[in-house]
Amino acid sequence: MVGTRWDEPLGRLLGTRAAGPFAGLGLHTAGDLLRHYPRRYASPGRLTDLSSLSPGEHVTVMAEVRRATVRTMRSRGGAILEAVVTDGTRELSLAFFAKKPGALRRHESRLRPGTLGMFTGVVRFYRGAAQLTHPDYQLVGTDVDDEAAALVEATRPIPVYPASAALPTWRIQRAVRTVLDPLTEEDVNDPLPTEVRERVGLPGLVESLRLVHEPYTEQDWRRGRDRLRYEEAFVLQAAMARRRAQAAARPVVARPTTPGGLLAAFDARLPFVLTAGQQDVGAQIAEDLAADAPMQRLLQGEVGSGKTVVALRAMLQVVDAGGQAALLAPTEVLATQHLRTLRELLGPLAQEGMLGAADRATRVVLLTGSQAAAARREALLDAASGAAGIVVGTHALLGEHVQFADLGLVVVDEQHRFGVEQRDALRSRGDEGDTVPHLLVMTATPIPRTVAMTVFGDLEVSTLTEVPAGRAPVATHVVPADNAAWTARTWARVREEVDAGRRAYVVCPRITADDASGADDADLLSGEPDDQGATRPPLRAVEEVAEELATLPALDGVRIGTLHGRMTAAAKDDAMAAFAAGRTPVLVSTTVIEVGVDVPEASVMVVLDAERFGLSQLHQLRGRVGRGTDPGLCLLVARAPEGSDAATRLATLAGTTDGFELATVDLELRREGDVLGASQSGSASSLRLLRVVRDAALIARARDEARALVDRDPALEAWPALLAAIDEWLEPSAQEYLDRA
Ligand code: ADP
Ligand code: MG
Q1: Superfamily of domain 474-656
Q2: Which residues are in the Helicase ATP-binding domain (predicted)?
Q3: Rounded CA separation 23/12 (Å)
Q4: Which of 52, 257, 325, 555 is the most exposed place for a label (fewest CB within 10 A)?
Q5: Whether residue 95 has its Cβ less than 6 Å from ligand 1
C-alpha cells in the first residue's frame, strides 16, 4: 500500500518510546498494528476459569476482586499489598511490594471488592497457591466518567491481544484505538475488490478493523473477523489463480502418444495389471501431455498406491515424442532408489547403447549433488545431448548449469517437501528456450481438498485411492515408553521378524545424543505444553540407539545398520543396500527413510519418541513396511500422557489407515504452518485467521470468485491493491529484504 497512513511508522504515531515494545512483537507500522488481531475476546460477564493456571505461564485473566489489604512485613521490613481475585470458585492472589505502605494505597483504593478487571502477569506458586507478582491490570468501566458510558463499556467484549510481558493487552488496545480512530476507508487500499465485497456481502476494510478491534457486541467482531478471513482466502486464491493462468499461458510442446513406441513396449512387459485408478489417471495425463498448454497436475496417492509406474508411463510418452523427462526426488537416497526402480522396471528398454538393449531403448541417468565428478560429467553430457531420455536427480537438477536437449516433462516426487518457489523455479526451467516443460507433481501425503486448493491451487488434482490388490495392511500399536515389559516385547518382535528373514526399521528423532540440532527433520513437534516443568529424558538418537540395541540379548548376533542425513551419499547408499540385501536386517535411522524408500522385505517399524512426530509423517513412515506380501507392523514407542494431544494423535493413527482422515485430524490438531511448512503456506504470518479445514466453504467460495476475476483480467491490472497484497503474501523474503535495506 503506497503513501497511505497505513504505512506510517508507529514511532511517529505513538512516540518512539511507546513504540519500542511493539517492535518487539514485529509491529512497525500502523498497518502491522491493525493486522495484529485480537486472539480472543473477554467478556466482563464471563470470568476466566482460574483452575488451569500453570507455573511460568504468562496469563491475562478476567476476575473479580474479593479483597485487598496492605500490611507491613515484620521479617523483611517493607510493605505488601495482597489482593485476592476470584472466578467465583477459585482464587488467585496478587502481590505488590513497596518500601512504605503509603506507596500501595493507590492500588488498595482501586482494587475495591466487587470490582471486575483484567489482570496480567506470570503465574508462580507461593505456598501452594497461584500468584501474580506486580501484575499489570485494567479495571472494567472505571476509566469512563459518566454512568451511561460506563454501562456500555461494562458490557462490551474486550479484545485480548497476543501480548508480551512488556506489552499488556490493554496497552495494545489503546494503541490500536489511537491509530484506528482517525482512519477512513480512503486511507487504506482494500485488497478485496468492491464488487466482490458487495456480492459476498462483506464490510469494508476499515469498518472490519473497527469491528474486530472495537466491537460493541459479539456479532460485531464475528462480522469483522469473517470479512478479514474472507480477505485472506481471497488473496491466497487470487495468487494461485494468477500463477495458474500465467503458467497456462506459456508455450509448450505437445507430446502425443506414439503407437509402437517405448510406452507400448513397456506396457507389454509390465509384470502386473494396472489398477483402475492408475489407468484413469494415466489416460488423463496422456491427454494433458498431448495438449498444447502445459500440464500442471498434482498426483496424490496413498503410500504404495503405485505412483511411480504412472509417472514412468508419462515419461515414456514424452520420450516417444522426442523429448526428455526429469524425475526430481527430495533426497539422494530416494533419487538413487528411483534410478534403480526405473532401470528394473524398464529392463532392456533402459539399456540404450548397451549390449542386449531392446531395439527401441533409452538411457536413464542419475544426477545428484554429491556424485563423483566423472559420473556427473557423463550424466550432464547425456542430458545435454539428449542421449538420456530420463534424468533422475535431487534438487541439483534445478541447477542452472544443467542443460537438456529437449526437456518435455518434469516429475516431482514427494512434493510436500518442495515449496511453491521451487515449483516456480521448475516452471521457468524452459525459459532459456521457447517452451516450458509439462509438470507432474506427486505426493503421498494425503491432502484434504481445501489444503490442496490453498497450497496447490495452481495445479489440477488427480488422486489414486486404491492400493494394488494383495498388499497386507499395517497393524499399528502404541507402546508406552515407561513400560519395561512392553518395550522388551517390542525388541523380541523385531527379533522374530529378523529370524523369519525379514527386516526392521528403528526410527529416532535425532542423529546424535549430544546434538540438539542433529535432527534431519525440521518438522519435529515441540514438546506438548503439558510437558512443561516436568524433566523429560532427551530425545533418542540414531547412534546411541544403535549402540544400545547391539547390547540387547534379544538382538544378540543381529547386525545393525544406521542411516541419517549427515552421512555421505555413498555411505547412505551402502547402508540402504546392506539393509535391502539383509546384511544388516535392522536399520536405525532418522526420518530420511520417510519418503518413498521401498524394501519389500521390511515388515516391522519401531518409532522411538513417536509423540514428537506429526500424524501425516508417522503415516508416511509406516508406509515403509508391509510393502511386500508379509503383513506390516508398526510399533510407536511414546511418552504421551493420557488425554494429551499426543495421545490423541497416536490413538488416531493406530485406529485408521485412511490417510485422508489422518491428514484432516492432523490439521485440526496442529497449526497449518506446522503441517504445510512455512515455505508452502507463504510467509508464516500470512494465515492469521484462516484455518483450512474449518473454513473449507469460505475458501471454496473465494476460489471461485478469484478465478473468475483472474479469467477476466489475468494481469490484475485493474486491482493494484489486490496485486500488492498478493506480492506481499508471495514474497515474504523480498519483504524482509526491503525491511533490512
Ligand atoms: P508410491 O505410490 O508409494 O510411490 P510405488 O510406485 O513405489 O508406490 O509402488 C509400490 C509398489 O507397488 C512398487 O513395488 C510397485 O512396483 C508396485 N505396484 C505398482 N503398481 C502396481 C499394480 N498395479 N499391481 C501390483 N503392484 C504394483
Ligand atoms: Mg513413491
Answers
A1: P-loop containing nucleotide triphosphate hydrolases (3.40.50.300)
A2: 288-464
A3: 13
A4: 52
A5: no
Predicted TM-score (pTM) of the model is 0.66
Distance 413 CA to ligand 2 centre (A): 7
Q: Are strands 136-139 and 116-126 parallel, antiparallel or unpaired?
A: antiparallel
* Cβ of 345 below 6 Å from ligand 1: no
Among 309, 327, 412, name the best residue to mutate to test ligand 1's pocket (greatest count of ligand atoms within 8 A of Cβ): 309
- Measure the CA angle with vertex 474, ends 279 and 559; round to 5°: 115
| Ligand 1: nearest atom to the Cα of 598 | 7
Task: For residue range 649-707, list pLDDT tens digits in order.
Answer: 899 899 887 777 777 777 666 554 433 333 333 333 345 666 666 777 888 889 899 99
CA-based diameter of the chain, in Å? 101
Q: Indicate if 474-656 has the same CATH topology as 44-156.
A: no
pLDDT number for residue 634: 95
Cross-sheet strand order for the sheet of 438-443: 363-367, 388-393, 324-328, 407-412, 438-443, 296-301, 460-464
Percent of the chain scored above 90 by pLDDT? 43
Domain ranges (residues) in the chain: 44-156, 262-291+306-443, 474-656
| Domain covering 262-291+306-443: architecture | 3-Layer(aba) Sandwich (3.40)
- Please state which CATH number belongs to domain 44-156: 2.40.50.140
Q: Which long-range contacts (CB under 8 A, 24 or more apart) does 708-711 make?
A: 709/193, 709/196, 709/238, 709/241, 710/238, 710/241, 710/242, 710/244, 710/245, 711/241, 711/245
